[in-house]
Specification:
The protein is mostly beta strands and 139 residues long. It is built from no helices and eleven strands. It is 0% helix and 51% strand. Strands 1-2-3-4 form a four-stranded antiparallel β-sheet, with no helix packed on it. A four-stranded antiparallel β-sheet has the order 8-7-10-11, with no helix packed on it. Strand 10 and strand 11 form a beta hairpin. The chain is globular and about 45 Å long.
């Protein structure tokens, strides 16, 4: 997909965030994992409505990394070690539903994904320096 800023792919479907912040998905949608609110398979990218997809990093000092992505049982979140304090995070489904929210301190966090259905999610980090968001996929 031209102008993709972030791309995440599984063997049967793909999600992408374009440079303009919009979210797109295509591929197998047998279980509704694309977030299109239907079960139609898409061979071409379709824009996914996501109320948080236009949040931009407003502080370039926040570095947010995931491992593994796509994830299965848990997601490891790593922050820039230079940051300190208490951080809040939200995990939001592609349909905009808040599925998890919590606080943590330190530069690493492990989140259990056992209760989340397979699909793509947005991780929104909120802290005193600013906000940033990043997509991850659970399968």
């Amino acid at each position: 997909m031209p102008s993709a800023h972030q791309l995440s792919s599984e063997s049967v479907h793909t999600v992408a965030i374009k440079k303009d912040g919009t979210l797109w998905a295509w591929g197998n949608n047998e279980y509704g994992q694309l977030g299109t609110e239907d079960f139609t398979n898409y061979i071409m990218p379709v824009e996914i409505p996501c109320p948080l997809s236009n949040i931009e990093n407003n502080n370039t000092q926040i570095e947010l990394n995931f491992y593994p992505n796509p994830a299965t049982g848990s997601l490891n979140v790593y922050l820039d070690p230079m940051l300190s304090g208490i951080f809040e995070y939200d995990i939001v489904s592609l349909s905009g539903q808040l599925v998890a929210s919590d606080t943590f301190s330190g530069e690493q966090l492990t989140i259990s994904l056992a209760n989340l259905p397979n699909g793509a999610y947005q991780f929104l980090l909120k802290s005193t320096p600013g906000r940033c968001s990043k997509m991850f996929e659970k399968f």
